[in-house]
Amino acid sequence: MCDSDFEIKKYTPDLKNIWNEFVESSKNGTFLFNREYMDYHADRFVDNSFLIFKKGKLYCLLPANRKEETLYSHQGLTYGGLVMNEKCSVEGVLRAFDVLIEKLRQEGIKKFIYKPIPHIYHSIPSEEDLYALFRHDAKLTVRNISSTINIYSKIKFSTLRNRMVKKAQKYNLTISQSFDFDFFWAILKENLKTRYNAQPVHSLEEIQRLAQTFPDHIKLWTAIAPDLSGSSQTGKMLAGIVCYYTKTAIHVQYISATPEGKRSGGVDLIISHLIDKESENRRSIEWFDLGTSNEDGGRYLNESLIYQKQGFGGRAVCYDTYEIEI
Asked: The whole model's pTM is what?
């Protein structure tokens, strides 16, 4: 195989359909790489994505953005890296990576920041790019720990988490899917501001638009208190979790509760429901990902946060970032 077998093109909007079709049929892509998702924050990043062809056929994609002399894969996404189909081989990916690096060198890129797609999002093994990183002397610069549950080999909830689930059941909280992002976002923003002086990554308008665009992939699940007023109105939302659904995993994107929801175990009941009930309705899903518990590029571990997640049976999956000097 020679490098002339490969051709690399920079993404342009006229390639949107072929890009999205490849993501959908890939072995490690998720809906986050769909251009309708990627482009919601196009005003914040200078897109510099690539399509790599082998003998005229699309072989792999790289969602990426450029900032000065650095290429990132992609700063607006939790993970990035090469999106590949089942035809990708180790030898082919090595060649594709060589072509990519040479293209970056020609364009004046001095540094390449690469975030591989964690294995829990792979429908079949897809770590050819990790070997290519090794061959290019990539340096591991960030390692965040996500707490993930194997749905088909679950670890029992801790005594505390079980107690909170039973408390929620005692309070007759009910779990349902909701479209009331307005109410949940108010809870979320208040908690983030109070605890971390932070804001959600997405604005309310952005998450509403994305949920409308990807109704099968973005869902808000809520714990609702019973209505004791005797009216026909529904009860009050005490807790909520925004989940991202991929082919292989349910990822917790946002999680929050009111003070009453925290006391009554609303979050615990939602998680229990999603692990035991919702995942059973989607047989291809193997993983329930509770998200990372790090700051400072993984150097700081929020032990109280990961303690809670491990109480649900979550165990470590690494979200890594690598750096290549070009």
From this structure: 0.93
